[in-house]
Design goal:
This protein has about 475 residues and is an alpha/beta fold. The chain is built from 17 helices and 17 strands. The chain has a seven-stranded parallel beta sheet, sandwiched between helices.
């Protein structure tokens, strides 16, 4: 048996039209079948359901899905390095690195297009755009017969077997398997791994049932992530009240153009507030360059020219989702909102009837007397000014925002009240009379936010209910 690892990278690449296309992978499989008559194809992908639909079933095709979050990415990477030959998404470093680390001198690696790298290594075979349709016609697909009995899973060994041949696994079954795995970890006291899989369930599968949130909150407590567990318990409390008046509607407005592909501090605060069960809307600046025209970094500027419009079109159309936050929060173009601020804001708030609207930002047009809602100014005290925008905003504008905000979030210990509520970020967190001062929690796995973000979001939410 000859193992051919097929790595199909789609997320991110499809937005840019740079994912090689499924016809290429069908053509490459046909090519490798002709070259190696005993080949088995092991499919690795970040969009495995889509790939199953396109490639279908075959006796020589196996879908690998570790169902273990970023640990699964590592496990799948190791499996990919063990294959004999490769079919790869051309620009994906994940697949290319696995291929490079494979020491097999006789390997064949198939890529799309022509050799523009001036790479003389004989192991590469390029399938041109003209060859793809000819080979693709020889690919015969059978529909996958879906359905798996997940109740028979007793332990991790059973899950691993399913992960190595997951062709029949559907999304709901995958969610059940991941949750079962998380519960097995929690039962054995491995709360960090349980928390990690709960994040995965939210990130990729939108798990949102009440019993899931309760398990997640309990696992976070066992793990020691008290602030994050408070976020989960706040969500549960609001969900159980079944009342729209138990929620706020937060509108997040960042200053500057740091809002295309990059996650700013303001956006993260909005995501956490939404995670607590509130409604959240985001206002983005569209078609603005984050790398100035005169910048020496022409490569980054060229990338921005290509990407930013596509990315923002997608965000405004489909909503804002990133990392473990799957919700697709509604997004609006900054120019559309602030060219006719009264009517535009009214249009947004009409969709959130029964909830108080609160604007959170650091943009002079948003934190302004013209905005008829409660306003939270997250100031530019260090290290909040992560993009070094203070000079661009201007001292006069910053002073004006201090003056008209209802709540000021600051790390400036010398700042005195000017008629507002003041949230001192470096002070302890008090919730329902209980002070949480210890910010040291065990580190487990990558995360897009820190305890600082959780602290600020929890304090803002508490202040808005005063």
């Amino acid at each position: 048996m000859t193992a051919v690892g097929v790595h199909i990278r789609r997320q991110g690449f499809t937005v840019l039209g740079d994912d090689n296309g499924m016809d290429f992978f069908m053509a490459a499989i046909v090519y490798m079948r002709q070259k190696y008559h005993n080949a088995n194809f092991y499919i690795f992908s970040d969009d495995i359901d889509y790939v199953k639909e396109k490639l279908g079933a075959s006796d020589d095709i196996f879908y690998v899905d570790a169902m273990n979050g970023y640990y699964g990415d590592i496990e799948e990477f190791i499996c990919l390095t063990k294959c004999n030959h490769y079919i790869l998404t051309r620009r994906s470093s994940y697949g290319r690195m696995a291929e490079i680390l494979n020491p097999n001198e006789g390997k064949t690696s198939v890529l799309f297009g022509v050799n523009t790298w001036n790479d003389s290594e004989e192991r590469f075979h390029f399938i041109s755009q003209e060859e793809v349709p000819k080979l693709c016609r020889l690919f015969h697909k059978k529909e996958i017969r879906r359905g798996l009995e997940t109740g028979c899973i007793e332990g991790i060994d059973d899950i691993i077997k399913i992960g190595l041949d997951s062709g029949k696994v559907q999304m709901e079954e995958r969610k059940a398997i991941i949750l079962k795995r998380a519960k097995l970890y929690a039962k054995s006291g491995e709360y960090g791994k349980a928390v990690h899989l709960c994040r995965l369930l939210e990130d990729q599968y939108g798990e949102n049932k009440e019993e899931f949130h309760l398990f997640f909150a309990q696992s976070l407590c066992g793990y020691g992530a008290i602030r994050e567990s408070l976020v989960e318990f706040k969500y549960l409390a609001r969900h159980r009240l079944c009342s729209e008046t138990a929620k706020k509607h937060y509108i997040i407005v960042q200053f500057g153009s740091y809002s295309s592909q990059y996650l700013s501090e303001m956006q993260m605060l909005g995501l956490i507030l939404g995670r607590m069960g509130n409604d959240v809307s985001f206002v983005f600046k569209r078609n603005q360059q984050e790398v100035l025209g005169g910048s020496e970094n022409s490569g980054i500027k060229a990338w921005e020219d290509k990407v930013n419009g596509k990315w923002m079109d997608r965000v405004i159309e489909k909503g804002f989702s990133i990392c473990r936050f799957y919700y697709g929060y509604p997004c609006y173009n900054y120019a559309d909102i602030f060219d006719g601020v009264d009517s535009a804001f009214n249009t947004i708030t009409e969709k959130h009837w029964g909830k108080e609207t609160v604007v959170i930002g650091r943009d002079p047009k948003a934190i302004s007397p013209d905005i008829p809602f409660r306003k939270v100014f997250v100031d530019f005290s260090e290290p909040f000014d992560e993009a070094y925008l203070k000079d661009e905003v201007g001292i006069w504008n910053i002073g004006r925002m201090y003056g008209c905000a209802d709540i000021v979030v600051t790390r400036d210990k010398a700042y005195a009240k000017k008629g507002q509520q003041v949230i001192q970020v470096d002070s302890g967190l008090v919730v329902d009379g209980i002070e949480y001062t210890d910010k040291v929690v065990p580190y487990y796995g990558p995360t897009v936010y820190t305890d600082d973000y959780l602290d600020i979001a929890l304090k803002i939410d508490a202040a808005c209910w005063m």
